[in-house]
Amino acid sequence: MIKPLADRVVIRRLEAEETTKSGIVLTGSAKEKPQEAVVVAVGPGGYVDGNKVDMEVKVGDKVLFSKYAGTEIKHQGEEVIIVRQSDILAIVE
Amino acid sequence: MIKPLADRVVIRRLEAEETTKSGIVLTGSAKEKPQEAVVVAVGPGGYVDGNKVDMEVKVGDKVLFSKYAGTEIKHQGEEVIIVRQSDILAIVE
Amino acid sequence: MIKPLADRVVIRRLEAEETTKSGIVLTGSAKEKPQEAVVVAVGPGGYVDGNKVDMEVKVGDKVLFSKYAGTEIKHQGEEVIIVRQSDILAIVE
Amino acid sequence: MIKPLADRVVIRRLEAEETTKSGIVLTGSAKEKPQEAVVVAVGPGGYVDGNKVDMEVKVGDKVLFSKYAGTEIKHQGEEVIIVRQSDILAIVE
Amino acid sequence: MIKPLADRVVIRRLEAEETTKSGIVLTGSAKEKPQEAVVVAVGPGGYVDGNKVDMEVKVGDKVLFSKYAGTEIKHQGEEVIIVRQSDILAIVE
Amino acid sequence: MIKPLADRVVIRRLEAEETTKSGIVLTGSAKEKPQEAVVVAVGPGGYVDGNKVDMEVKVGDKVLFSKYAGTEIKHQGEEVIIVRQSDILAIVE
Amino acid sequence: MIKPLADRVVIRRLEAEETTKSGIVLTGSAKEKPQEAVVVAVGPGGYVDGNKVDMEVKVGDKVLFSKYAGTEIKHQGEEVIIVRQSDILAIVE
Questions:
Q1: How far is A56 from chain D (nearest CA, A)?
Q2: E5 FRET partner, CA 20 to 30 A, in A2, A72, G7, G21?
Q3: Structural domain spans, chain E
């Protein structure tokens, strides 16, 4: 189990079929391509660089995040990404 | 539905005909070209990098924003852009 | 009507004849050329990047600003520029 | 014995076999490759650049950290790395 | 009349003869050449980027400033320079 | 005698033989090579760039520091280095 | 007379003979060469970029400073240098 520190969030990228179902398609020309993902673990927040960060996302949220943000790792056979909450643009409902 | 986080705002670019009606035409030589758009969703504001941000725009506002700001996504067949409120220059009435 | 947000100011550049009348001539060798303009709209000020900004200029003020600052737009047939108040160097009386 | 100052943490990289057992495999294309390590010493925290830092990791924690962070040294025949706590992405349990 | 905003100061460069009289000669090899000038207008100070600035120079002060600082303008036939107070190194008495 | 200002620390690099005795050997590939040294003078700390700095090292401490940090001087026939305390990674005991 | 503003200090470089007497010799390979000087004028300190600066050096102090810091001027036939107090590394006694 991965327990992210501070304002970090572990997310799992949603596959194309899932993306299609949610109705979000990324435009090809966007310099910073957002991506859809589901939240699998959320750090505790708290003070990051002296600023208090409250965590606004929770496990299970479908989110849009910046493609080039974060660090990809493979955990128990599944690829996940560790991002900062500020790299998450929006929650999709 | 897209719920932007923090100080982010979801906007939909106004088409040329709409732009003409509002009387704003962008000059060709401007290095940072502003664009007209309508606000479709507004984040909750709050503390961003330790600074309190109050949201000054609301859904339906016609706004000028910097062309190169934000992230374009296609949501349910419609292109929208996610920007920070500080990328919005002015409200047009 | 353009309502600038935060510490932004909408200004209209003064023509050469107007500039001559006010007695200000810009020197050619200055790296950052100032320009004379008249203020046409003033944002509400308030907190910008966590710092409180009080607006010191008002509609009708003749001001000197940095040539490369701001964003030019054409509004109802007239070119205006949206700058931050901190890009305004001085008021000319 | 190495006693790290401020928000620094001394970690010992886990070998491949250990990594395999924990089920984390790093993907080849990640720009900033995380690595697994075990914490061997923890600084006292306190004020760093004016911000209060509480130490969230403890000796014995298995952690993910950014490959290019920190300074490698050889201490009593064993290679260790001195990183800042903010370079630690997550605790693995 | 030019009324500088915030922490800005309007200065008039002193001619060589004047410089010689005051006994200050600039060395040729200095990377950032200071210059002697006289203060002709002083902004109100106040909060600049969130920091309170008290104005320490007054009209008539002879000052040393950094050559490459500020913006040169010609006002009613006389060249003046608009600098920030922090670009003024010292007062010469 | 050298009395360092603010958060500065005067250190004397330990020779190879001393380093070997303490059991620390630097790895060749490290981009920022740490070095072992002994503290010979400690500044008073206090406010540095607005942040309060308490001095954590004392005269006689054996420390690891970053090779490229600080300024080398020769004082009474002995080479010493003036670093900021934040350039000291750890105390070795 | 030169009255430095804020946290600035006017210093006069010590000649080689003086340097030799004090026992400090600069090593040739140091990237940022310190220099010995004597303090001839001290600014009032106070708030600089929002941070309170107390002046720790006084007229007559022999100090080590960074060679590339500050601005050299010739005042009444004597070369002096205007530096910020933070460019002074240590007092030599």
A1: 19
A2: G7
A3: 8-92
Q: How many angstroms separate the CA atoms of C9 and C59, rounded?
A: 9
Q: Using CA of residue G8, residue G11, residue G13, residue G18, what is the dihedral sign?
A: negative
Buried b (16+ CB within 10 A) or exposed e, G55-70: bbbeeebbbbbbeebb
Q: Could you read off the pLDDT of B19-36 as tens digits, one per residue? A: 545 565 554 444 445 688
Strand order, beta sheet including B8-13: A24-25, B71-75, B78-84, B8-13, B34-42, B62-66, B88-92, C2-4
C42–chain B nearest CA distance, Å: 10
Burial class, E55, CB count within 10 angstroms (exposed 0-12 / middle 13-18 / buried 19+)? middle
Cα–Cα distance between C50 and B53 in angstroms, integer? Answer: 8
**E28 touches G: beta carbon within 8 Å:** no
Largest Cα–Cα distance in chain F?
41
> Could E34 and G71 be called an inter-chain contact, meaning their C-beta atoms sit closer than 8 Å?
yes
E92 to chain G, any CB pair closer than 8 A? The answer is yes
- Whether the CB-CB separation of B64 and B53 falls below 8 Å is answered with no
Interchain CB distance below 8 Å, E74 and C30: no
C-alpha A45/C-alpha A47 separation (Å) is 7
> What ipTM goes with this model?
0.76
How far is it, in rounded angstroms, from Cα A45 to Cα G45? 38
SS3 call for C14: coil
Of 3.30.200.20, 2.40.128.120, 3.40.50.11540, 2.30.33.40, which CATH number belongs to C8-92?
Answer: 2.30.33.40
Task: Encode pLDDT of G55-78 as tens digits.
Answer: 999 999 999 987 778 888 877 778
CB contact under 8 A, C54 and E46: yes
- Cβ atoms of B1 and B80 within 8 Å: the answer is no
